[in-house]
Structures are given as C-alpha cells and as structure tokens.
Amino acid sequence: MGLRKTPEDRQRAVDGDLRAASQRIAADIRDQILSGDIKPGEDIPSTSELVREFNASTTAVQNAMRTLKDEGLITSQKGRTTIARESRMRVMRPANFFAPAEPGQPYRWIAEAQKKGLAAVSELLDVEEVVPPASVVEALGIAQGGTAMLRRQLLKLDGEPAELVENYYPIEIARGTPIAEGKKVKGGVPTLLAELGFPFRRSVDRVSARTPTADQGVYLKMPVGELPVLRTFRTVYSDNDRVIEVTIMAKAGHLYELEYEITNDQLTH
C-alpha cells in the first residue's frame, strides 16, 4: 500500500492540526480504508514504515493501530502484517423510506434492507408522551411546555445496531391511535398516517456530525474515541404544509453515508 501524501505534504498539514499524533494517523488510514484506497485484505505498512511516513513516535503509531482495530477496520493475522478488513460502510438512501408500505409488505426501511440481502429488524424501545427538545417544539409548532408522542426505536442490520431513531408526533394526531401504543405499527407509521388522512407530501432533512450522546454511544456500540454520529433532523409535512412528524436519527459516522438524488425536474422548480 502506498500512502497518498508525501512526508512533506503531511508535515504541512500537521503544522495546523492540534490533534494528538495517534489521532491524525488513525484518521488518515481510516479515510483511506473507507474510501477504498486501501482494499480489504491489503497490508497496512509496518510500524517502522508508519513512523517514517508520519514522522511520529512508535507509541503514536501503535495507539493509532489499536484505535482502528477497536473500530473493526483492521486486524492482525498470524504470520502476517496488519491488514485492512472488509469495509462495513453502507450507503443509505433516505428517499426510499418515505412512502407508506404496500399492503401486506413490511415497513419500507426493512423492505429496502431485504432487497440488499440484509436481515433488518426494528426494536421498539420507548413509546411515551414527553416534552420534546426545543428544536422539536419549534418544528412541530407546539407551545412551550407542550407535549408530543415519542416513539424511540433501534434499527439493526444483520444483528448489529444501525440507527437510533426518535420519532415525535403531534399529540392531536397520535393520541388514541396505534402510534401511542407500546407496540409496533403494522406497515409502519407512514402507512397509518396516510390512512388517518395525513399522507406524506415532502420532508426536509438537516444533517450534521456530532459527538454521540451517552444513549447514542451505548445503543450504537460506538467505539471509544473521537468518532462522531451522523445526525439527521427530519421534518415531515402533509397537506397544507402541516407537520406530522419530526424525527431525530443517529448513525455511526464512520459506517454510513447518505445519498440524495436530485433530478433535473427538481432543479427547475
């Protein structure tokens, strides 16, 4: 494997980087693995080579390798140098999940995962009436101190946590419906909302990278370190621009990418 930067290029970058050397080394190699520049099964340079490449100490290189092993990106095999593992990076296409499920079909998120040969499950964690965070209060347009119905779930792919999801619904829509019950909604909530007269019309996503909260770190099994979660704040609208759902989703930032497709028709309107 040839590292992409020369020692001179790397030193110019390092001069303005206040992170510890081990963090810089881990970040550089992590990026190459996730970008496909380092292929699965390909050897990682030896400690002595990395010491020279990064102008770093042996301890810094060893700490960086330990971090990448904890993240599941590299592994050591008997009689071989350290090698890159098969990347677990997945591409998510949010637009595929909005429409209500077809009759007799599972929730869209599960159906889309099954098309890729993945075993997908949704584990319902909480259903309760709560005073939501300020950002949700503003998006739902409810009074300060007002409540919303929260449904929190953990989505898993092949047995591993994929996404922690908090769905908030206006009380006047959710109360007295299966949304407020402590069990899964057949076909998913989008299907039920459409049946209640609140079909999906459009949504707005705000995506950011943040340090994981305690809950996110535990549920998503985030490795100890500097890795962020990819946070999506989604506002869903029905007819007359009525907000019918606000969702906060968190995924491990080093394992997922979001893909949005924009058509020429969308660009001209």
How would you describe what is shown here?
The chain is built from ten helices and ten strands. It is of the alpha+beta class and 269 residues long. The strands form three sheets. It has a six-stranded antiparallel beta sheet, with helices on both faces. A two-stranded antiparallel ribbon has the order 1-2. A two-stranded parallel ribbon has the order 3-10. A hairpin with a 2-residue loop joins strand 5 and strand 6 (160-170). The chain starts with 6 loop residues before the first helix and ends with a helix.
Distance between the termini: 47 Å
**Class based on secondary structure composition and strand pairing:** alpha+beta
* Anisotropy-based shape: elongated
User: How many DSSP E strands?
Assistant: 10
Count of DSSP helices? Answer: 10
Estimated radius of gyration: 22 Å
- Indicate the percent of residues in helices: 25-40%
